[in-house]
Design brief:
Chain lengths: ~400, ~375
């Protein structure tokens, strides 16, 4: 970001000239270079279909920006922390969709860090171009917070593994071509050491995907069943028994943007806009002191979080490992997201009640209440997930207690 | 992007940390706090030698040309020692207002004395009715042939008990809540017509209520220009918010560390109580509040230093410090059990200070209320 925080005469958060040019370039991209269908969905506050999501990510790929966090040698941007910060902020300001993380942000770093050359050449280009859709096979019905307790088995049989078991909470698994899984290759010894990292083609015989309907009435997550699925051993990443290590590295690797600060900032500024000029159907909530103090309390927490994230980015950009402050990003980030959800429901007022799911996908139906109202309660319900997934916030506190405070 | 300290700040941090560690253990501090003057005058001379009294002042007045970010670094370390020396009152408030509002002659003489450790200052701004709303001032100063006659009452003037000069905010024109019409006056507390009711505060510092009965102030002792003091006092108070927030961050770190260490050694049910998850999560919460406070401090200090929406930044910062301080302070006492409420242990005294910091320069609730009202008229 071109600033040294404590230099006596140079204390503004200010971007260098080249960073300012980069910011303009990013801004221009989001304003002018998104596919029409994607632009329409964004402008009308609609959820993106798989096709639109892929179109969006392909537009990024064409620009060379799909591998936001990837190193240059694998086709990534090689961006500095500051450039990522700028990109995420401009993306949020333009209300652009989030990049679906499973391929580009989750499995790709594992493949380019631990996969062999053949695997890198086989998988990375299709991830970068969003030609292949990935999903994550970690959680199981009996292995949630205690993830190392997974039971899905991969038993070696010649050049194949035979995989059997159940994965669950598989986000967008019904769209996926491939799934990256933690599987048990050994039953004895320390439970973490019997886990391997395996890539499985969703079209393999014996893979079944069943929907789980969430509180917003929609299909977002799934159960994935594996019945004696044959998986070639050259789909194993790295060494057998090291899967837990790779998965952990992946979690610490992917800290950028985990708190969703840029998106939350955008949502907060939308709240302020709607408070000063209430959209059709919305009450004048500015007079409500209790509500206003909740908005401001959320702003306080978000502002602090923004600087916590900057501190993390700053230490990463100077080559240091993220400090202890990084462990709070997930907790505080998700708390702020949920606080914003509550505010949106409050702003929808009585129009939080009507259940009109058509309005998520279709801009042409008559609006019931203010334009954001139909989605407010479903989003609130659905977003209770954020403090649960990725390691519940309670698990995160365990991590802070053990790893940071040494308790 | 770099949140590291520069060389000068690193030196400042090291020397302050060393001072607290070597010369300011808790028992020594209690000794200073309980003596008549409420602090150790030798330390004040040491502060002068170390250049701390010169830190925020311009080089032409003998200062070190530091800014609020440098002050922040120093104050965080001093907070860890719960110092009772009147640094906030004399330097951050008194010296700062002289530098911002005084004329050349006043700056030269007053700051020289302050930097040398020979002159201590206090700023008498707030009043009982208006508290932290410094536009609503009912102390008056009426012009006469020989100077101004100062009349009124100032409340809880921190550091007034030991100040050699007190800078008083009074109304010289306009209505009681006008921002225009406020002026500053330099008085000697021993002057005729001034009554000081000094007391110790709940956190071991000292303050006073001051009554002015037609106190004659010469024209030479009008600080800077007449009628225009509001903006500069506001700026000084924003700086003071950064300074006490920095101190609060030091206090919170101390409370967190003390609590974690205590929970590692205190055994109940045959194990260290820190092994219990319910306590671990409470300490994780304390940790997060400390870090979020530090982040907010950086934001606030940068924004105020570059005068970028400074009043709002000060309010956001003070709100965060208020909530975080309460959470960390209360949890620290709770996790120390009975020991947490004893006078003997330092934890209770850090708790006292963090609680009082919330009341200084506008509480959490006041700042929140102010911001809500600003949104409502925007």
């Amino acid at each position: 970001m071109g600033f040294t925080l404590f230099m006596v005469n140079n204390t503004n958060i200010d971007f260098s000239e080249s960073e300012k040019i980069f910011r303009l370039e990013v801004r221009f991209f989001f304003q002018n270079e998104l596919p029409k269908k994607v632009r329409f969905a964004i402008d009308n506050g609609l959820r993106l279909s798989k096709e639109e999501q892929v179109l969006y990510q392909q537009a990024l790929a064409t620009k060379g920006w799909a591998g936001t966090n990837w190193p240059v040698e694998h086709g990534g941007t090689g961006w500095s922390a500051t450039q990522k910060y700028i990109f995420y902020n401009e993306s949020a300001k333009a209300k652009a969709p989030r990049i679906v993380p499973f391929g580009l942000s989750m499995v790709a770093p594992v493949i380019y860090s631990y996969g062999n050359k053949e695997q890198q050449e086989r998988f990375l280009p299709d991830i970068l171009s969003s030609k292949v859709w990935w999903c994550q096979g970690y959680s199981e019905p009996n292995a949630g917070s205690d993830l190392a307790g997974i039971k899905t088995k991969a038993i070696r049989d010649g050049d194949d593994y035979i995989v059997s078991g159940v994965k669950t909470w598989t986000t967008l698994g019904h769209y996926a071509d491939w799934i990256f899984c933690l599987v048990r290759t050994q039953d004895t010894g320390k439970k973490q050491e019997g886990i391997s990292f395996l890539l499985i083609d969703m079209n393999s015989t014996g893979v079944t995907v069943k929907p789980i309907i969430t509180l917003d009435g929609r299909r977002e997550v799934n159960e994935v069943f594996f019945e004696d699925v044959r998986v070639p051993t050259n789909n194993l990443i790295g060494e057998e028994g090291k899967g837990w290590t790779y998965a952990k590295v992946l979690l610490t690797h992917e800290r950028t943007n985990i708190a969703g600060v840029a998106v939350s900032k955008q949502r907060l500024s939308s709240i302020y806009e709607m408070l000063s000029i209430p959209p059709v159907g919305m009450a004048d909530l500015r007079k409500n002191n209790v509500f206003m103090s909740r908005v401001l309390a959320t702003e306080v927490e978000l502002k602090a979080l923004e600087y916590t994230e900057l501190r993390v980015l700053s230490s990463v950009s100077t080559g240091k490992a993220p400090g202890p402050e990084s462990s709070i990003l997930k907790i505080k980030g998700t708390e702020v997201q949920q606080a914003l959800d509550e505010l949106y429901v409050e702003m929808a007022g009585i129009y939080a009640l009507p259940f009109v799911p058509q309005q998520y996908d279709n801009a042409n139906i008559d609006s019931t209440g203010p334009f954001f109202a139909a989605n407010s309660a479903p989003h609130y319900y659905n977003n209770r997930k954020v403090t649960i997934y990725g390691g519940t916030n309670e698990i995160q506190k365990n991590i802070i207690a053990k790893q940071v405070l040494g308790l | 992007m770099d949140f590291a300290l520069n060389d000068i700040q690193q030196m400042l941090q090291d020397s302050a940390a060393k001072f607290i560690q070597n010369d300011y253990d808790f028992e020594t501090r209690q000794g200073f706090a309980q003596c008549d003057v409420g602090f150790n005058p030798d330390n004040w001379s040491l502060f002068a030698e170390l250049g701390w009294l010169a830190l925020p002042f311009a080089e032409c007045y003998g200062g070190l040309d530091g800014n609020i970010l440098d002050l922040m670094v120093l104050q965080t370390e001093l907070g860890k020692g719960l110092i009772t020396e009147p640094y906030l009152a004399s330097v951050v408030l008194g010296g700062n207002i002289v530098q911002r509002h005084g004329n050349e002659a006043q700056k030269t003489t007053i700051l020289e004395g302050l930097i040398a450790g020979k002159l201590k200052l206090a700023l008498a701004a707030q009043e009982a009715r208006s508290q932290n709303d410094i536009s609503t001032i009912s102390t008056t100063a009426n012009k006469t042939d020989n100077g101004y006659l100062l009349h009124g009452h100032k409340s809880v003037v921190v550091g007034a008990n030991c100040a050699d000069k007190i800078i008083v905010l009074a109304r010289t024109s306009g209505n009681s809540s006008d921002k225009k019409g406020l002026s500053l006056f330099i008085v000697d507390p021993k002057q005729a017509g001034i009554t000081l009711n000094a007391y110790v505060t709940n956190d071991g510092n000292q303050a006073a209520d001051i009554t002015f009965k037609n106190v004659l102030v010469s024209f030479d002792d009008v600080l800077g220009d007449i009628d225009t003091a509001f903006d500069n006092v506001k700026k000084v108070l924003n700086d003071a918010i950064v300074a006490i927030s920095a101190e609060a961050v030091g206090v919170m770190e101390k409370l967190l560390n003390a609590t974690v260490e205590y929970c590692k050694v205190r055994k109940q049910f045959d194990q260290p109580i820190g092994k219990f998850q319910v306590l671990q999560h409470r300490m994780a919460d304390m940790f997060m509040e400390c870090e979020q406070s530090k982040s907010m401090l950086y934001y606030g200090a940068i924004a105020i230093n570059s005068d970028d929406d400074a009043d709002k930044a000060a309010s956001l910062l003070k709100i965060k410090i208020g909530t975080a301080g309460r959470l960390v302070g209360q949890a620290a006492v709770q996790l120390h059990g009975g020991m947490g409420v004893t006078d003997e242990l330092d934890v209770g005294h850090f708790f006292k200070r963090i609680t009082m910091i919330n009341t200084l320069f506008g509480s959490h609730d006041e700042h929140l209320d102010n911001l809500v009202k600003q949104q409502q008229v925007a």
